[in-house]
Fold each of these.
Amino acid sequence: MIAALLTEAQTDPVFARQYRTRFVEPRREQARAIFRRAIGRGEIPADTKIEVALDLLYGPVYHRLLHGHAPLNDRFVRDVIDTALDGIAPPTTARASAPAG
């Protein structure tokens, strides 16, 4: 169903605006709130680029959905979240002292 909506959004600008307003944006706003709470609790850095973080989470899911090259299941979603959050989590002492490369 989502793939069909995305296809329609690519060809119909009016539908695309409605799709983003009614489907995409409410979900992203919920996720933004989660990130803001995590920042408030000190779980992730205050300067986290929330929009980029959201794209890091949603991108792989939509990639699998659209290409169908591998299963889109709960394990994959958990792995994506863990991997993305590990990349934006505050650095550990070991990571902070490692040379950039």
Amino acid sequence: MTTRLLSVLLLLAFAVANARNDPPPTSDRAWSPPDLPNYERDLAEQRFKTAPGKAWKAYADFKTALRKQDSAAKLVIALQNAFDAVLECYKQGLSTYPEIVSAERNLASARSVSHDTQSAIYTAAGALALSTGDLAPATRAVRSSER
């Protein structure tokens, strides 16, 4: 066995062992090429075992993003009402310009949070579809609604 092939095999064994959290082999006697299918099988089994956890995490992230969007929408409505009230007070001479600027800044910040949560919803929905392997039906549903 050449030195280059041996170093590639040891590097591959280290990568697979690192993915499995096993100690890496110390020499070519500890690991041989026929063991490679066993490492691949073990890695596939580990991925199979962790797939439900990833799907549940993606689902929880999606539900959390939806709840955040509800809260952000309520925050935008409340700050819009506050801005309108401060503006009306300013028109009647009961408020100052810095108060308007502050209310407007708060409203802009709330709108930014609303847009960020919308982005988080799309990201979480994509992660959920990817973790469940359900990307194609979602694409068909979008196409059918466009018609």
